[in-house]
What does this fold into?
Amino acid sequence: MIKLKCTKKINEQEQNKKMGYAKGITLISLVITIIILIILAGVSINLVLGENGLFTKAREAKEKFLEAQEEEQEGLNTLLDEMDNYINEKLQIEIINGTLGENNWYTSDVELRIVNRNENDTTKYILTGATTQEETEIENGKTIQIENNGITKITVKSYGEDGTQTYEIEKNIYKDSEVPTIEIVEKQTVEIGTSIDEEYIKNNSTIKDNLTEVKIVDLNIKDSSNKIIEEAEKQLNEYDIYTINFKIKDEAGNIKEVEQKITTKPKIPITLKNIIPDSGFETGINGWYNCDTIESATDKSMSGKSLKYTLLNKQAFARKNYGDLGIAGKNIYCSIYVMSDSQTTWPDFGVASTNTPDEWPTEISFDGKSVSSLEEAYGKWIKLSFILTKEKTQWNNLLITLAQNDVNGTGTLWWDNMMIIDLSPFDDKVPTTDWLDNMIPYTESNQIFTLNM
It folds into this structure.
């Protein structure tokens, strides 16, 4: 019996020990839970009451709403005041005629009407500024003209029967009818690669206006083929003659359109050579080329070395065949002056590389000017020019031809100032024909010259 009691007591002690452990674990969990709740409560309080909390945001929103409401009310009050003043104004200055430009400037004369609602009062006005006028009485409802450019202030006063001033109003009239002016070099030469923008125009011209600042607008750049240079580029990257169009505009909106020609030049001098051996013609063979005479012309000579040939039948042909020109360039520039006495037809100017005039080899590309559109220049020297591109390295048997077809009877043609220029010094930047026509001077055969612009 005693043994059983001891066992029971031991069991009770173990059970109590286990219950103590359970209570300890529960207490720890409770503490952790309380700590977590305190942290969450702190975060929530910060979200609500912190510097960027909900209460702060709500207060700021309320303040902005009240400010907007006040501004709206002020604007409404101002509008109502202006409407009330207009309805109840005793004096009014009305603009009844004038061309309104920009920024409240008028670009024409301005006609004003003065209205005094108190018909028993005397009305007087004063002009100061661009237009001046001492205090002058004016009949109610009559008009006055503002003709001078500038800012004119008009002051209108109303006087009662006893001579006491009762009302006064003022108004400024802005008038500018003058177009801005510009002094610019119409034909200008710049280095290749130059950027043309508003800053360049301002630095290379003198722009003036009588009253206000001037802006450059609608800048447009085209090359000799009328191709527009894109806005992002604005650089003159080819040897060409460019057309620059833009407008200058003052604050009143007055506009002057400007056009300028700009020619590019090399950054360093380029040496070239007229490689043509001579400038003569050869007569045709076997009667196919019907040139009756070829002689030096003096009556219509340009350089004193002009050649004239007479055409007999409906087809006439003159030619000059050049052998190996001694150059290795892929591109050559040819130019010649011609004149015709025939009013009904103009010569055909041709290039080939064989001894047969009607054969055109595929390795030569011809970029020339047609003379068919120049019939109105009958009896005048016309410059024909072209650029020849050849795939092979040597120029052999280059044939220059000048023909006139369907001649009604005898005709006469002149030939002068023939040049052939090797363009290889330009490397990959082959100039345009217009550029070469403008920049290369006439030289004698086999002469070397330098483009030093």
Summary: The first helix runs from residue 2 to 49. DSSP finds four helices and 25 strands in the chain. The first strand starts at residue 91 and ends at 97. Confidence is low (pLDDT under 50) at residues 1-10, 279-290, 352-374.
